[in-house]
Amino acid sequence: GQQLNQSPQSMFIQEGEDVSMNCTSSSIFNTWLWYKQDPGEGPVLLIALYKAGELTSNGRLTAQFGITRKDSFLNISASIPSDVGIYFCAGQSLNAGNMLTFGGGTRLMVKP
Amino acid sequence: GAGVSQTPSNKVTEKGKYVELRCDPISGHTALYWYRQSLGQGPEFLIYFQGTGAADDSGLPNDRFFAVRPEGSVSTLKIQRTERGDSAVYLCASSLDSWNTEAFFGQGTRLTVV
Fold first, then answer.
1. What secondary structure letter does DSSP report for B80?
2. How many CB atoms within 10 Å of residue B16?
3. B103·A45 Cβ contact <8 A
4. Strands B109-113 and B10-13, how do they pair?
5. Do the chains contact at B105 and A99, CB–CB below 8 Å?
6. Which of B1, B65, B72, B94 would staple B29 via disulfide (CB 3.0–4.6 Å)?
7. Direct distance between the N- and C-terminal alpha carbons of chain A, in angstroms, rounded to an integer
8. A1 pLDDT above the threshold of 70
9. How do B88-95 and B75-79 pair as beta strands?
């Protein structure tokens, strides 16, 4: 089946630093989504991307849909302590209906 | 409601028992999804409903798992003869319709089979 490789698996950074994480796939996706999950909570949608090459921002977050349609990255600028959590990429492909395939997550820890 | 609501938030059951997990989607959302998340992993797709019908149940692991959505709103995930390997967080999500892939998740039900 489809797999998404998300990296890094974890990051421990200083408050104020920028963060970058990415997802790669062996197959093409037509939608990429980025979610954040806090402990004991469900994933919360951060950014949705629909077109190859698309670059979208949401506050300090910026995400891009790779031109090959097989990758996406998420950047967080000037990190703050509340950015702590697990970030997941998710992709949706035309031949898989409406199901989302999730990456393994990137655990972000921010040192004040 | 304002968001996707799942009950119970936690469920502990004995091996072999039957459990039901409930999901109340965002009002007006016609598409509903169930995912399962094991510790340290991303969510994995189980089943997708468009309205009352299961449009894709390819993620259900075996015939002990079944889900219904009789009136096109609330959905129930049913697990028969639970096994310890069924322990996980079961997440429900909804989206506006089948054309909209922006899925909004509930807080999940943590199922522990002992």
1. -
2. 10
3. yes
4. parallel
5. no
6. B94
7. 40
8. no
9. unpaired
How far is residue B52's CA from residue B47's CA, in Å, rounded to a whole number? 12
| B48/A33 Cβ within 8 A | no
CA distance B35 to B22: 13
The number of helices, as runs of H, and strands, as runs of E, in chain B is 0, 11
Phi-psi sector, A78: left (phi>0), alpha (psi -120 to 50), beta? left
The overall average pLDDT reported for chain A is 93
| AA letter at B82 | T
Per-residue pLDDT reduced to its tens digit, B5-62: 999 999 999 999 999 999 999 999 999 999 999 999 999 999 999 999 998 999 999 9
For residue range B30-42, list pLDDT tens digits in order.
Answer: 999 999 999 999 9
| Distance in angstroms (rounded) separating the CA atoms of residues A68 and B57 | 29
* 8 Å CB contact between B108 and B7: no
DSSP A100: P
- Determine how β-strand A10-14 pairs with β-strand A106-111: parallel
C-alpha B7: how far from its chain's center? 10
Give how far B25 is from chain A: nearest CA, Å.
13
What was the pLDDT predicted at A2?
A: 55
pLDDT above 70 for B1: no
Q: For residue range A29-83, what is the model confidence (pLDDT) as tens digits? A: 999 999 999 999 999 999 999 999 999 999 999 999 999 999 999 999 999 999 9
